[in-house]
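Protein: Glutamate decarboxylase
Species: Pseudonocardia xishanensis
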Amino acid sequence: MPLPERSGSDEPVFANPVFGEEPITVPRNELSAAGLDPGVAYQIVHDELMLDGNARLNLATFVTTWGEDHVQRLMAESLDKNMIDKDEYPRTAELEQRCVRMLADLWHAVEPIGCSTTGSSEACMLGGLALKRRWQHRRRAEGKPTDKPNIVMGVNVQICWDKFANYWDVEPRLVPMSGDRLHLGAAEAAALCDENTIGVVAVLGSTFDGSYEPIAEICAALDALQAEQGLDIPVHVDGASGAMIAPFCDPDLEWDFRLPRVASINTSGHKFGLVYPGVGWALWRDAAALPEDLVFRVNYLGGDMPTFALNFSRPGGQVIAQYYQFLRLGHGGFRRVQLTCREVATALSAKIAATGAFDLLTDGSELPVFAFVVKDGEPFSAFDVSAALREAGWLVPAYTFPKDREDISALRIVVRNGFSHDLAGLLMDELTRAVERLRHQSGPQRGKEAAGFSHT
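Structure follows.
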């Protein structure tokens, strides 16, 4: 694999003389001959990282950027724990299983099986693999070929699903956006299914605009398809964000294992699960939904350890932090946190709409995430607005929507735990100033080629 192009200067670092008795130069792209004093090495790395954006002001990411001191302390105390060493760290392994059982209860599973992952991308890969393997087993039992599997999903899915289809030779059947429908529709999903469809991916919270896909309607459409054509097609719910929002904010919404057609669900512990980056979760309805031949057993770490994951060694601290958050907040605490995020999102989106400069695509009333576009006739683009906010330290992405709605250039704001009404007010002040200034332009100055963000 070729190395990426280098960014920045290749010149060596000339360290400040205060760092040592003699002038020091440090090469940027190869090992130094003799190493450095730890204080010098720390200061060089620390100083360069100051040029990163402020994570708390990053409204592009769904990933947790704030946590209590107790979370940070537990993770620091667990830096040396390898999650895969379950025989050596039995309590950490037990906390992982408790988290699985808690999520199963939250998602109405009766006989679940599940595991932690490094994030939702890995969990989605595992969910897709289980769908493919179940389809292969059924087809072989029927004496039918298994060489042309396909998976149906909206064009708005996260990039991990495109990777899954590419890496595991599954044809991706993407339902395009159309008109005001900016995610997967039930009828459109069913129309693309056939005997080679391993499953349908339904997203509870699109990254493009924060909207929920109609999972109950999708399942009902697949029920009708089975009644008409005999096709029994399972659903995987990509709940990377929404699976930790809907149970607390929308408890009556049926999207989870209450729907018999839902075979598996994933979520990101490090998104609205309120843990720092590095943990996701994958759950299956029951053991039958996860083929046994996908589970490996090893004994060279001590004991007989079943494992189903793409990664092997990975940190245990994030799983421990997840259990802490479940223990610390409980159902009532999570509900307060998530509802507060939604309240901030809906209040902020209403103020942005009231400026008269923008139209809302969503308002944050599902995921606490909303997207908006610049009104026709304004002399600036979404990319101008993103750049203006970035000058003040706010990281708000501007991006175009996928094929068939590439005419939409949107801005999106993700409201996470720690983004308060006060911070939202400060952002609104800066956006108001930016709009006033940008309205003096003769026309838009930046297009999508100027975007500083990659949506995927």
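Remarks: The chain has a mean pLDDT of 92.
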